[in-house]
Amino acid sequence: MKTVIAFVILSPxxxxxxxxxxxxxTVQYKDQVLQKKAYExxxxxxxxxxxxPEIKTKIIDQLxxxxxxxxxxxxxxxxxxxxxxxxxxxxxxxxxxxTQIFNLFGRDEARDYYYPIAIMSxxxxxxx
Length: 128
Hints:
Blueprint: H1 2-48, H2 53-65, E1 74-77, E2 87-95, E3 112-120
Antiparallel strand pairs: 1-2, 2-3
């Protein structure tokens, strides 16, 4: 009987120590992928002078290919073409999801991965 009671008392600790590192690693890897894609979107937008629908579609398709939910990805930015040397604002946002295996005290509030990037435009208008 003692072993059953000890197992019941200690099993949450075992579960926590077994699965929490994997959850934290997943959160970290998602952060790295999203940050890289935000910078890639900013770089492509700087060359075009704005965030074009093609760039937006390309980045969202690449994220969807690695199992991010396409409907939850929010990629926004400057849509009007700006001259070379002016700033372009790009923002990538994605919901973070759960970060703890047990939400005992309700402290695991909903957060987003959020990457605001300001980059200088490198767009040169072609003259005919």
